[in-house]
User: Fold this.
Amino acid sequence: MSQHLPPRDQLIVQFAHPTYRFQRTAENCKIQLKCFQTWNFDETWSNIEAANVLVISGLWRNELLNVAPNLLYVQSISAGTEQYSLESLQERGIRLCSASGVNADAVSHHAIGLILSLARQLHLARDNQNKSHWRPGISEQSKREIDLRGKTLLIVGLGNIGSRIATIASTFGMKVIGLKNRIEEYEGVVKQVCRPNQMNDLLSVSDFVVLCCPLTDATRNLIDKDALSNMKESGYLVNVARGACVDEDALLSALEEGQIAGAAIDHFLDEPLPTSSAFWKLNNVVITPHSAGETANYEESVIEILVKNIEILYSDRGELTNQVL
Assistant:
């Protein structure tokens, strides 16, 4: 591919993100790249013609390819790449890489935090704090905080994130079971690893269910009405995967009717979550604003992958880091 690249000192990188400060971070890190940043879709559309490399995620639309004649490489800011038309990129000979692994620690820590919040009722404590209310002791044992030791955690997706969640949960004394497509490839602390077709049986014995799987045709609406009906009434769902992995209508009904005990959700189908959404009013739900992967050094981590991959492109050494195409 090196023959199609412009001279190194003429390579232009476009960062496109409404929040993250990639250009400033690149300058602070003294990255020797010509770069600029756009902050919304219209700016991205208007300026992409100049870009050889595009660093993007949520602002991506496949129609950008129609106005990007010089584009050679797309670096996704996120681990997921389902928003990109692989066929269109391949037709144009454009490389695509994900940011897989960049936020694995952050997302796994966030998932554990959500489990702890539900188990220790931290969200209810914060609600009471806002009302200056000191909750008295609880006589009804089933309504008290939960001890995680001995509880069963089902992790759906044992990749980088799921494996880290399993390690942390094990230190709490939880019994961890996991689902993975290729169980023969798994090496980690989870002793019971099963294939996805066993999910419904495992839901019925799990106290907490964490989704950290990619969004695919197989995982879209993975947690639907039937799956929720197989969960314990005392069970909790934690979603740090894509919102589309859950049938939101079915989940809302299950939460409102007490079919499951509660849920913690970091990703919804429509974001920002509309103020009219019924999820906001449920006291058995913890909502975080798609922030599981956020860290103060996120930009640096993505740029590190970017710089390595540009080096590979110019040396023509083959596969890029996290290469999808």
Remarks:
- The chain is about 30% helix and 15% strand.
- The longest helix spans residues 298-315.
- The longest strand covers residues 12-16.
- The mean pLDDT is 96.
